[in-house]
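Supplementary Methods. Inverse-folding protocol.

Structures were first reduced to a discrete structure-token string of length 428. This string, shown here, constituted the complete conditioning input.
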């Protein structure tokens, strides 16, 4: 396929996402199934056009002064590749599979817009109702933080120390372009996709089948490390889901002690069994019934609440979710977070720790929840988060946004990771 056919396919996929309100990954997969002639290179290029359009939707729509699938795909392609309107038309000319060339109105409005500075609220590429929240979260740095949140992400992996050393796994993944991660000691990274390329499918590598590594954002690895699970501990992972943090903590515990992995939604737990087996984790007990947790009350050294949240920190990887998020959904997540924190707290033993994690950038879900928790539960005190960070990552003092009593935030601009939040409370 030439550029025009690829852009037309991206427009068709965005149309499908919009009209059927479905996740981008599902729409991409269905398009692939009904266009089997498209090769791997075509699919990768089309995927990049779709995801770029969703990441930079407001900028791309501003370029044509309209928010249609055509405008956002063509606009994002122009911004990403620094193409003028005339250059885009020249590239599409004579291609029977291309979308219609830019007409006189489109040429004029996009040329005018390209000659003006882009307003900061447009360049931020977040929904309008979220702007006050990102300004509150980042202060003067909000524009740079939002720009990083709208950029292409790297592919991050975590070496499973139960089975292999990082040097050995890096060697096995040399062809895939893996490098040591900047912060996480067991992390490996393939840099963000350039141009029309694609990330390697690392899950087909023998090293993956052998359980030597997991795919996991570096921010997720860092918060799992900050939780501080150590050999011999009794740990409750209260929102274990598919087990990303459970697996990381099991490795940190060297398979000694015990992790109880619970999730209120048993369907979400289903991938954990295969993952535990492949990774050779032997100290994890999966619990699908809340009633079965009762004997653990007041017994845990560590309880991790990896709470359901808006996922605003992962907008680089799931940009479609950014535009679907509503204030009502935020309110619903906030209420769930309060209820889960309160339910999880009773499992911590005196002297033990409750840790709270989100993959959100919003203060409402992060430090404000932590403050409210301490006000509701006077028996819990926030730890000194600066000391926790210094202890675990002494060489990366400037790679997190840390407030001593209010927790640790990771962001794409500051940390080079997805957006994450971590807070810990000691039970007196
Ligand atoms: C952010 S996800 C967890 C991701 C997982 N820890 C990982 O690292 O792969 C949040 C999880 O919380 C679960 N959850 C929602 N409400 C819950 C509740 N009341 N109690 C326990 N888990 C809950 C959801 O089913 C979801 O799997």
């Amino acid at each position: 396929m030439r550029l025009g056919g690829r852009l037309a396919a991206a427009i068709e996929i965005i149309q499908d996402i919009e009209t059927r309100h479905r996740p981008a990954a599902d729409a991409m997969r269905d398009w692939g199934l009904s266009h089997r002639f498209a090769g791997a290179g075509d699919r990768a290029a089309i995927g990049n056009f779709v995801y770029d359009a969703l990441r930079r939707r407001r900028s791309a729509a501003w370029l044509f002064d309209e928010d249609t699938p055509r405008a956002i795909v063509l606009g994002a392609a122009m911004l990403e590749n620094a193409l003028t309107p005339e250059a885009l038309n020249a590239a599409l000319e004579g291609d029977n599979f291309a979308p219609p060339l830019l007409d006189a109105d489109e040429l004029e409005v996009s040329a005018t817009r390209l000659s003006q500075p882009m307003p900061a609220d447009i360049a931020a590429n977040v929904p309008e109702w979220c702007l006050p929240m990102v300004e509150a979260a980042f202060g003067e740095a909000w524009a740079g933080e939002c720009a990083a949140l709208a950029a292409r992400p790297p592919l991050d992996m975590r070496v499973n120390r139960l089975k292999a050393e990082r040097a050995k796994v890096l060697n096995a993944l040399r062809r895939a372009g893996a490098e040591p991660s900047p912060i996480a000691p067991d992390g490996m990274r393939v840099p963000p996709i350039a141009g029309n390329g694609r990330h390697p499918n690392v899950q087909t590598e023998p090293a993956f089948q052998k359980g030597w590594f997991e795919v996991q954002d570096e921010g997720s690895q860092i918060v799992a490390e900050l939780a501080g699970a150590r050999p011999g501990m009794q740990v409750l992972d209260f929102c274990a889901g598919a087990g990303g943090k459970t697996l990381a903590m099991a490795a940190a515990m060297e398979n000694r002690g015990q992790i109880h992995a619970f999730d209120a939604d048993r369907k979400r737990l289903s991938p954990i069994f295969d993952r535990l087996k492949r990774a050779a984790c032997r100290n994890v007990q999966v619990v699908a019934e809340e009633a079965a947790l009762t004997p653990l009350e007041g017994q845990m050294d560590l309880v991790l609440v990896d709470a359901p949240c808006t996922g605003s920190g992962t907008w680089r990887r799931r940009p479609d979710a950014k535009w679907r998020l509503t204030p009502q959904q935020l309110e619903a997540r906030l209420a769930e977070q309060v209820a889960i924190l309160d339910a999880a707290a009773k499992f911590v033993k005196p002297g033990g720790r409750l840790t709270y994690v989100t993959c959100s950038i919003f203060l409402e879900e992060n430090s404000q929840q932590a403050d409210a928790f301490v006000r509701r539960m006077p028996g819990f005190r926030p730890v000194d988060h600066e000391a926790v960070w210094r202890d675990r990552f002494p060489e990366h003092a400037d790679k997190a946004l840390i407030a001593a009593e209010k927790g640790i935030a990771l962001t794409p601009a500051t940390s080079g990771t997805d957006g994450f939040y971590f807070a810990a409370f000691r039970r007196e």
